[in-house]
Amino acid sequence: MVLALGRKKQRLLIALSILPNLFLAFLLSSDPLLTLASPHHCHLPGTTPTPELLNASLPWEKGEREGESGRLSPCKQYLFVNGTRSDVVVCEAGWDYNVTEGLRKNIVTEWDLVCAQYWLVPVEEVCFILGILTGCLGLGYAADRLGRLKTLLTSLTLSVIFGTLVCVSPSPPIFIAMRFCLAAASAGVYLSLYITRLELCDPSLRLVVTMLAGLTTVAGELLLLGVAIGCHSWRGLLGTGAAPLSLFLCYGIPGVFPESPRWLLLSERTSDMNSFSERSERQREDDGFTELESEPPPSHRPRLSFPELLHSRNIWKNMCVLGFTSFISHGISHCYSSFRGDVRGTTPSFYWTYLLSVCAGGGAWLLLWATVDRCGRRGILLLAMTMTGLASLILLGLMEYLSESAITVFSVMGLFSSQAAASLCILFTAEIMPTIIRGSGVGAILALGCVGRLSSPLMDLRNHYGYFLHHVVYSSLALLAVLSILLLPESKRKPLPQTLADGEQYRRPPLSRRRRDNVPLLATPNPET
After folding, report:
1. The pairing of beta strand 60-61 with beta strand 40-42
2. Given CA atoms 408, 413, 414, 415 in this order, what sign does their dihedral have?
3. What stretch of H or E contains 405?
4. SS3 70
């Protein structure tokens, strides 16, 4: 039996799988807005303290890093006894904030997560990334065992529930716990939609569809910033992202969004397969079809064998190389965003950093769309990691001689290439992992990317001390990743593998092939005859 999807039906399902990315960006990319720390000082009597009162009431502190000028203390004030200064004490009546960027009211300004309580901000960021990691691993495995559609509906339901609970969190500990759960559920939605979208596409459409989904996420991140400027409250911002996700629960209505046909081929859902085929037969008046391999007999339908998986050396090799590359490309990105502030002591504005990161992501998708189908996945991934390593070496080796504009150019180059490599790693993994473990494989690569991202909040917790050594380690590993990418196969315009045996066939082409002479030998005449 051969499955077929009409071209119109295929495009409709792909559009339905892309649309949620617009609102997932509100949940997965809102952390910089929620944890942005604005300039602050101790609360002083009066509505708007004058500069003279600030200078008289607040002690002066030197810059914490080389190149930084001094400033009025944000955490201490003078204690006055009978009108004279007696001692320096910590702020007693709270803080006043000078909010000029981002949300007017975020978790930092609402709960005073500054000074002695600042450590809660990196903890929240770490827990959020760990939540994404947990969701990628757990719900990726569920997508392989329970099905893509069930995992998607479960993740959507949990995202709506925990999104609502986050918006009504009364204290930082509850907020951090709910954000962890929300991150795990949102990662499940993203992952299940990603692999379902890929399994619905022809080989020639996979890159275009993935690029459109990535650009939709970029549009969501830009919309997030616009809503943040107009919303002013972090509760309203997260509610704006969580509420529309409840509309996508209609995907559970029969006939709206079907289960992945490739997963049905490997499962025991014969009745679901038959109903899917009957719906496909009614749409054959359309000339375009997406054909899958013939369904094997029920008694010979392949199942996941863990001993066979452990002995699938080629699959493990590909996962290790792509996981290592994902770890480096995700982890080194923030080094370029903060390099100028680390070296020169002049931190750029939040809007500049945010828009630069988002636009670099959008440009990376456009670059992949223009080059990957022409030059191959492996070649462009090799180029992206090479550019990442070169940008780091130039910034680290010549930072004393580079001007501000040169630092900006090479930082943008590194940010652009690292985001291109990170995006291509996920697509590459989804194309070479067999259907039977595709959810777990893509989830593992995303999880390793989250491990790389953990270095950013940990550096914030240390106030970026040791940034140079941190960047050196990542750039050295990037050059090592360039060599390991040569071990990967090429998946351009190839069908998605179904079983572990199919995945084992994705091997790197040999660097040198033996030349075979196909010219037949000439028969020499026998002198005796």
Report:
1. unpaired
2. positive
3. helix 404-432
4. coil
Are the beta carbons of 142 and 442 closer than 8 angstroms?
Answer: no
Both ends of the chain: CA-CA distance in Å? 62
Q: Which of 50, 256, 298, 74 is nearest to 152 (CA)?
A: 256
- What are the residue ranges of helices labelled H in 232-312? 234-242, 261-265, 270-281, 306-310
Q: pTM for the whole thing? A: 0.86
174-177 own/partner pairs: CB under 8 Å, 24+ apart: 175/107, 175/124, 176/120, 176/123, 176/124, 176/127, 177/127
Using CB atoms within 10 Å of the CB of residue 523, give its burial: 0 to 12 exposed, 13 to 18 middle, 19+ buried: exposed
Distance between CA atoms of residues 342 and 136, nearest Å: 32
Residue pair 393/336 in contact (Cβ under 8 Å)? The answer is no
Structure tokens given for 309: 């998986």
Residue located via tokens 């600030």: 54
Take residue 92 and report the two structure tokens written for it.
Answer: 């007693």
pLDDT in tens, the chain (529 residues): 334 456 788 888 999 999 999 999 999 999 999 998 888 778 877 667 777 777 777 777 775 655 556 677 788 877 776 666 777 778 877 888 888 888 888 899 889 888 888 889 999 999 999 999 999 999 999 999 998 999 999 999 999 999 999 999 999 999 999 999 999 999 999 999 999 999 988 888 899 999 999 999 999 999 999 999 888 889 999 999 899 999 999 998 888 888 888 888 877 554 455 555 555 454 444 443 444 544 444 444 456 666 677 777 888 999 999 999 999 999 888 877 766 665 555 667 888 888 988 999 999 999 999 999 888 899 999 999 999 989 888 888 887 788 878 888 888 898 999 999 999 999 999 999 998 899 999 999 999 999 999 988 887 776 666 677 778 888 889 889 999 998 888 888 888 888 888 888 877 766 555 545 454 544 444 444 4
Q: From the CB of residue 7, how many other CB atoms can be counted at a distance below 10 Å?
A: 14
Cα–Cα distance, 172 to 242 (Å, whole number): 19
Angle made by CA atoms 412, 417, 418, in degrees to the nearest 5: 100
* Distance, CA of 138 to CA of 133 (rounded, Å): 9
* CB-CB contact of 418 with 361 (8 Å): no
- What would the two tokens of residue 444 be? 């593992």
Cross-strand partners of 85: 80
